[in-house]
Amino acid sequence: MRNRNGRREDRAGAQQNPATKNNGPKGKKTSRNGVYLFSLTIFLIGLAAVLAAFWGNLSVPAIIVGIVVGFVLASSVRIAPQWERVVVLRLGKFNRIAGPGLYFLIPIVEHAAAHVDQRIITTPFTAEEALTADLVPLDIDAVLFWLVWNPKDACVEVEDYSSAIWWAAQTALRDAIGRINLAEVATRREQLDNEIKEILDAKTRTWGITVVSVEIRDIAIPKELQDAMSKEAQAERERNARLLLAEIEKDISEMFVDAAAVYDQNDKAMQLRTMNLIYESVKEKGGLVIAPSAFGEAFNNIKGFGGE
């Protein structure tokens, strides 16, 4: 999108949340309905137990007590999916990593600060109008594959690790592009992927995050430069073709010189060459061929054809 001055605004602007940005296909995601259903069941069990205890003298205070007990039980007894880890704080300090499966919390004293997904996460990111070393603006789309291997550091060392790694990836991409020329961008794509991965690994290692890979999807070159690059490539191909043709002509001329030297030193070689030319002419046209008198003399000078 362009502003009033005609300049393109960065997609990572304040009006767009990079953590939720996704240009890829919308696939089927795993569900946490089982976790919510388990909490609801624990809540209902606690509520039902209190109501059963006060069944003979059921009142509003008894219902309130049942709701409180059910809420406390649902907050204390929880489950986490196989791919999830829970960061538990006790009185504001890190205590442990819980999950997967069943885990317990002490009401009020402990709480789940974060639920960390430890599967590989795919994050698209872009660098619009990233300047190369020769000051050419490029629009680049890439994909980042990463995972959280240390839930504690991911929650304690950085406020929002999803947004942090998105911004870090975009910055690393711009830095890598700024160190090479336009002509090197397409030919060094794999090297760029590895370079960005190394930069991100060094930056996110203290966050408990590992970058699996970085893959550049598309590089958009300005239209005004596409024609110039196309003409340059066409001129380069024409130059190579002319050089190849010149080398071939040089080789042929050298072979002609060598053949002439052989014919000059050996008359029979010249006569055999003459006979070969007559044979090829007869083979192509068929029938009798009217040949110059020099051809006849070539036969007469060879033994078996009137020669000595």
Describe, in plain words, how this protein is organized in 3D.
This protein is an alpha+beta fold and 308 residues long. It has 3 domains: 29-115, no CATH class; 121-221, Tetrahydropterin Synthase, Chain A; 266-308, no CATH class. It is built from 9 helices and 8 strands. The chain has helices at residues 33-53, 60-76, 151-156, 161-177, 182-187, 189-204, 223-265, 267-285, 293-300; strands at residues 77-80, 84-90, 93-98, 101-104, 110-117, 121-131, 137-148, 209-220. It has a 3-stranded antiparallel β-sheet. Strands 6-7-8 form a 3-stranded antiparallel β-sheet. It has a two-stranded antiparallel ribbon with strand order 1-4. The radius of gyration is 41 Å and the shape is elongated.
Short structural summary:
Residues 75-233 form the Band domain. The protein is α+β, with helices and mostly antiparallel strands.
Backbone shape? elongated
Level of helix content? 40-55%
Q: Report mean pLDDT, rounded to a whole number.
A: 78
CATH class of the largest domain: Alpha Beta
| Low-pLDDT stretches | 1-22, 303-308
The total count of helices amounts to 9
* Class inferred from helices and paired strands: alpha+beta
The biggest beta sheet reads: 3 strands, antiparallel
The end-to-end span amounts to: 94 Å
Number of extended strands: 8
How many separate domains? 3
Strand order of the largest sheet: 3-2-5
C-alpha Rg (nearest Å): 41 Å
Give the strand content: 15-25%
CATH architecture of the largest domain: 2-Layer Sandwich
Q: Kindly report the CATH topology of the largest domain.
A: Tetrahydropterin Synthase, Chain A
Find the CATH superfamily of the largest domain.
Band 7 domain
Elements, N to C (H/E): HHEEEEEEEHHHHEHHH
Biased composition (Polar residues): 14-23
Protein name: Membrane protein
Domain Band: 75-233
Biased composition (Basic and acidic residues): 1-12
